[in-house]
Design a protein that fits this description.
homodimer, alpha/beta, Alpha/beta knot, 2 domains, seven-stranded parallel sheet, six-stranded mixed sheet, 30% helix
Chain lengths: 240, 240
């Protein structure tokens, strides 16, 4: 399999890819490509070019579109877990096909993370997209307060869900009809202590449907990954 | 919610739970329970007792059975990933309801892990069962060569699957009819480099059905977690 590299739009000039110093260093020293060998450049928005490495950087050999995206546009609203758990969430849900993630400051999360964290999460999303052979790099939003994310996303006018633990609400699978999936979906998952009552009420007031993710109590890291696995599985299955 | 503690069968004597030194220390110093306060003791096989802490250890107040298990008995055969990835697999799949995990030495994994690793994985399974409020602690098998695990599990005479990447095989969802789930299922997922051709052929020879987990390339850590999320979701959903 050819090595994949996310590039910026400005790096493409006519039939060339202008490599940055660190990208060229990585391709030559770590991936161990020589002049004449190929790699794939992706713009993170679905466009891919097969590129031949040479002394000027890269020469575009062919263009193609990657067909690895889900038929459904999934936005996850994720209450930030303790420690480095959010990195694992970005990694796994990118592999599973998420399109956008809103990291959320909720009533029971820690203070707002540093800007360096956001840079690191975006880097992880990019690397995971490369490794999972996606043509699209998920967008990682700036961390927001939960109520702001609710207002932004509920205006998109698509099915919105909020996962709650110890609930009598129906399982999310009940709302995902494989024969009639929406084109876009938004799902919010909570942090370790769960959502506060006020947060759930606020989400419901903005047309978020509360749902269950099963009978067991999932950690803040597991909940969005399990959710994304379910949506991807239903979206890619044909029940043929 | 009451704190949960896995105990050994021998710790239950008539209407008492005889606590070990470290368990009592944990309950009193970390969970900060005082005499007269309650916790839940579970034997890891589905039996639960509500227990009152006192100077002799614990006095059983009531017995109950936890109703958080899946209707399907899932065994995962997991090719050991690099680093500490297997810990995350044990943690997440326990929360999602797995019953047994076979850590596997495959053609492309590292040498057999130390016995201390196995002890650590079993401890993680126990803690994750406590936290996710399960009554059953999944069994973590001794690490085995893949062909030995295939022979052991294929003799159980239930549907067996092997997940392969870059395949034209059908998605696993095609084989999981929500209205007709088997009582037991076995699924094998590979390590970073994927299975060798010989391994896949050997599995097929033992009636393992090759399946896809979707169009993107999942890491060795993500594959078993996504698989378990799918099975749990289908098992717990009623499509009502």
């Amino acid at each position: 399999m050819l090595y994949r590299l996310v590039i910026e739009e400005t790096q493409k000039e006519a039939n060339k890819i202008i490599l940055k110093y660190d990208q060229e260093h990585y391709l030559r020293r770590v991936v161990r490509l020589n002049n004449g060998q190929h790699f794939i450049a992706i713009n993170g928005k679905g466009k891919c070019w097969q590129v031949k490495l040479n002394d000027d950087g890269g020469e575009i050999v062919s263009y193609f579109e990657e067909k690895r995206e889900l038929g459904i546009d999934v936005t996850l609203i994720v209450s930030l877990p303790k420690g480095n758990g959010f990195e694992e969430i970005v990694r796994c849900t990118t592999e599973l096909g998420v399109n956008k993630i809103f990291p959320i400051i909720s009533d029971r999360t820690l203070p707002k993370p540093s800007h360096n964290k956001l840079i690191r999460w975006r880097k992880i999303a990019q690397e995971s997209a490369e490794q999972s052979e996606r043509g699209i790099v998920p967008l990682i939003n700036e961390p927001l307060a939960f109520h702001e994310a609710i207002i932004q996303t509920s205006s998109l006018n698509c099915p919105c869900f909020i996962a709650v633990a110890r609930t009598t609400e129906k399982h999310i699978m009940n709302y995902l009809n494989p024969h009639q999936l929406p084109s876009r979906i938004i799902i919010a998952t909570g942090c370790e202590g769960g959502w506060s009552d006020k947060e759930v009420e606020n989400a419901i007031a903005h047309k978020f449907q509360p749902i269950s993710l099963g009978k067991r109590i999932l950690r803040a890291v597991t909940a969005p990954i399990a959710t994304m696995a379910l949506i991807a599985g239903i979206s890619e299955n044909t029940y043929s």
